[in-house]
Each structure stands twice: as structure tokens, then as C-alpha cells.
């Protein structure tokens, strides 16, 4: 499973990308607000730091505007993926951008039906928001399971990108289900490294080695 970083904070991306575990980055308008620099400049910088897919979202609500913004975003770098919201206009924009060979990520997906429509429109990625579904009293990972089954039934090539990840267990579940990608906030990625037995084990090895050197 690919791991994307879900942030627009460039220092965080630089630090995590250096560890060799980041396959791509997702951003959205809320995350870009925290980056505190002009939108296109931030996306251009991220595209240089991480060679994989970098999602950048359109702000227009009509399909012509989405296509126009999508073309502008895609001109920033070859690895930009245009993020389009799950609406009828959004799906029209996805199919127009696909015919121009511009890859898209359909965002704000909360059901298998929405994911089916995104795949039919020709999206490269579909982003079910598991954390927001959990917050609303559903089980977000159940929706991911349904989407994976629907896509497998019909051999859709759209990749399932698990988004709105809140904790490491979401990532484990995504990997067990065979999702293509999980996009993970920096704090969750940091937690994925942690296990108390690893810390105890390192300390014991160091203590034992110090004792050996004293003998
Ligand atoms: C990524 O593509 C999504 O925009 C992001 O994961 C949403 O996360 P949130 O629900 O924590 O805002």
C-alpha cells in the first residue's frame, strides 16, 4: 500500500520524505491555509520534494471553472493530481480532464455509489473520508470495504485512497483490506513508528552493551 502525507506544511513533508516512506502528498484548501504561503508556490515546492502524486484541489463549483483551474494546477508540475469534489459538475470536469490526459482525485466521497460514479467518470484516485464518516456515527472503513468490492467486481482501475485518517488503526485496516493508498497526517505517521517494546528493547540492548564494555 502506498502512503501519502496529508499536509501542506513543507517542513513536515521534507522531514518525512527524507525517511523514504512517503509515496505522495494530498492537500486541500484547509491544509493549504496552514501552509501560510501562496497556493501555487506551495504546490510547486511540494512537487519538487516528493516525486509521486501531489493532489491540489480546485475551488470552482462549476465544471468549466474546475477544468480551467485543473489545467492551471496541472501546469505547475507533471506530478500534480487535480482534486475535484464529488458533484455532477465535478464528474463532468473529471471526464473532460481525463480526455486531456490530466489525472484527478475525486474528493469528499462518503459512499460506494459516489465512488462508482467517480470511477465511471475516469478518476485516477477516489478519496473516501473515513474519519469524517466515523465522526458522523458510521464506520468509515466499511465504506472502503464496499468500494474495494465494487471496483474488483468490474475491474475499475481507479485507486482507492483512504483519506481523513485519524489514527494508526485506520492505516492497518486500509492495508488489510487492500486499499491502494492511505493518506496520513504527519502526527499519525509519527505514531506508526512507535511501539513501547521497541523502546524497551533498544534501551536493554544499550544497557547490556554498556555492561559488556565495562567488563
Ligand atoms: C485528503 O485528501 C483529505 O482532504 C483529508 O484527508 C481530509 O481530512 P480531514 O477529514 O481530517 O479534514
Structural features, described:
This protein has one domain: Aldolase class I (TIM Barrel, Alpha-Beta Barrel). It contains 11 helices and 8 strands. The chain has helices spanning 10-17, 29-35, 39-49, 63-74, 88-99, 112-121, 130-135, 140-154, 168-177, 186-192, 196-214, and strands spanning 2-6, 24-26, 54-57, 80-85, 104-109, 125-128, 159-162, 181-184. Helix 4 links the parallel strand 3 (54-57) and strand 4 (80-85). The chain starts with a strand and ends with a helix. The model has no long low-confidence stretch (mean pLDDT 97). It binds erythose-4-phosphate. The site of erythose-4-phosphate has 11 residues, from helix 7.
List the helices and strands and how they pair.
Layout: E1 2-6, H1 10-17, E2 24-26, H2 29-35, H3 39-49, E3 54-57, H4 63-74, E4 80-85, H5 88-99, E5 104-109, H6 112-121, E6 125-128, H7 130-135, H8 140-154, E7 159-162, H9 168-177, E8 181-184, H10 186-192, H11 196-214
Parallel strand pairs: 1-2, 1-8, 2-3, 3-4, 4-5, 5-6, 6-7, 7-8
The structure holds erythose-4-phosphate.
